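can u do me a favor
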């Protein structure tokens, strides 16, 4: 179970980054905020979603090289 934690954290972080990217794409293209639409009745949950997306981005930026086979190959050269 302990060995699966980094893998699970990586997967959840990636999923949250996709949520953030799709949301920003919709905002830019259509002016539609999906996160706000889904969580409009619970502002605290909307804010938490934004915080988790941001934290996921920081996590993936700092741990990307250890998971990405392309980046780790480039660093070896």
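np, heres the sequence
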């Amino acid at each position: 179970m302990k060995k699966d934690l980094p893998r699970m954290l990586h997967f959840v972080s990636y999923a949250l980054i996709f949520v953030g990217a799709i949301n920003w794409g919709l905002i830019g293209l259509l002016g539609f905020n999906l996160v706000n639409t889904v969580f409009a009745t619970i502002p605290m949950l909307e804010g938490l979603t934004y915080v988790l997306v941001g934290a996921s981005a920081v996590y993936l930026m700092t741990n990307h090289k250890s998971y990405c086979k392309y980046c780790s190959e480039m660093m070896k050269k």
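The chain has a mean pLDDT of 86. hope that helps!!
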